[in-house]
Amino acid sequence: MHSLYKPLLEVAVELNPALLPLDWLLGTWESDEPGEGCFPTIKPFHYTETLNFSHVGQPVINFLFSAFNAETKKPLHRESGFIRMQPGTNRVAFIIAQNSGLVEIEEGELTAQQLNLQSQAVARISFAREPHVQQISRVFQLRPDGKLEQTVSMATDNQPLMQHLHITYRRSS
Questions:
Q1: Cα 106 to Cα 35: distance, rounded to the nearest angstrom
Q2: Which of 1, 48, 78, 98 is the most exposed, fewest CB within 10 Å of its CB?
Q3: Among 18, 37, 36, 15, residue whose Cα is nearest residue 26
Q4: E strands, the chain, where?
Q5: pLDDT at residue number 12
C-alpha cells in the first residue's frame, strides 16, 4: 500500500463519541461467500466485496467498498464516502460517490445494530449509462453470528424499487 494512505488506516485516535452507536461497523469486512446481484435489465451475477470503515477522530466514518466479479476477479463497483450521525438521535447519513458516476445521499435510522437507509438525493454524470438510477435503499445488519449482511434495492427510469444486491461479510480486521 502506498505510504500516503497508511496514516489514515493506522491512526490510533479515539472514536468521536457521536459515532459510538456505529462502532460495530468499524474495520475491514470481506464477503463470506459471493454475493448475488440481479435486476431485470442485467444478467444475474455473483461478486465478492471488501468493505473498509475507518475514522480519524472526527464525527465522521470514512468508507470504501470494492466489489469484484466472483468468477473473473475483475473490478466491478466501487463506492467511497462518509457516514455521519445527527447528534442525540439515531439518524444516520451516508454520503456516497460511485465509480459509475453516481453520487447520492442516503439517510435513515439506526436501530440496535441495523441501519435502514433510503436515498434522499441521487445525481449522475451527464453521460451516465441508461436507464438511470432514481432511488436506492440499503440495509446493513450485524447478525447474531457476528457477520454483516447488506441488501441493496434500486429503482431506475423503467423499473420500480426492487432488490438488486445481497451479500454477507465476515470481519477480517
A1: 22
A2: 1
A3: 15
A4: 27-31, 35-39, 42-54, 61-69, 75-85, 91-98, 102-111, 114-124, 133-142, 148-156, 159-171
A5: 80
* pLDDT beneath 50: ranges in the chain: 1-7, 11
Q: Which residue has the cell 470481519?
A: 171
For residue 113, give every residue at least 6 positions away whose Cβ sits within 8 Å of its Cβ, in sequence order, or none.
24, 141, 142
Please give the Cα distance from 27 to 163 (Å, whole number): 26
Residues 6+ away with beta carbon under 8 Å from 119 = 104, 105, 106, 135, 136, 137
Residues in CB range of 65: below 8 A, 6 or more apart: 49, 50, 51, 52, 77, 78, 79, 80
- Over residues 50-77, the pLDDT tens digits come to 999 999 999 999 999 999 999 999 999 9
β-bridge pairing 61-69 and 75-85: antiparallel
pLDDT of residue 101: 96
> Are 86 and 94 a contacting pair, CB within 8 Å?
no
